[in-house]
From TrEMBL:
Name assigned to this protein: Type VI secretion protein
Domain of life assignment: Bacteria
Gene3D superfamilies linked: Hcp1-like
InterPro entries, sorted: Hcp1-lik_sf, T6SS_Hcp, T6SS_Hcp1_domain
Length: 162
């Protein structure tokens, strides 16, 4: 069963940007309902070989409109740098317990886009959705962690091509 991702944010001007989560141990986080992110390496259409440095696309989350929404819009409009952007992924273990198993941390992030939207509430397949927002972040660095084994990978846009 899919579980929401929990997002922790802190800005240089506004400080902690609190979400509306009331779940014990995750109070004040932002519940993320969807996430999209890509990293691509340009390649030659003739040979398929790499032709340049990897390109990090914006990391975009989908969330319900909540108390963090005005602060996220303020961060976008003012170009506020975010000193903490951490996405925490949870799952249910076979034993039935919940565990944090994956994290994504962004370094020197800013919000580069906010899209507010609401699916057609008369359609059967979308009537359960609330008022939603897509928040897009760019960053200078990213770190992925597989928590159970402490396996990490990281990248920075200014790191040399591997």
């Amino acid at each position: 069963m899919p579980m929401p991702i929990h997002l922790k944010l802190k800005g240089t001007k506004q400080g902690a940007i609190q979400g509306s989560c009331t779940m014990k141990g995750r109070e004040g986080t932002i519940l993320v309902q969807g996430l999209e992110h890509s990293i691509d390496i340009p390649k030659s259409p003739q040979t398929g070989l790499p032709t340049g440095k990897r390109v990090h696309g914006a990391l975009t989350i989908t969330k319900e409109t909540d108390k963090s929404s005005p602060k996220l819009l303020q961060a976008l409009c003012s170009g506020e740098q975010l000193t903490e952007v951490e996405l925490e992924f949870f799952r249910i273990k076979p034993s039935g317990e919940e565990e944090k198993y994956y994290t994504i941390k962004l370094t020197n992030a800013i919000i580069v886009g906010v899209r507010t939207w609401f699916p057609n509430c008369l359609q059967t397949e979308t009537k359960a959705f609330g008022h939603l927002e897509d928040i897009s972040f760019t960053y200078s660095g990213i770190r992925w962690t597989w928590v159970p084994d402490g396996i990490e990978a990281e990248d920075s846009w200014d790191a040399p091509k591997a």
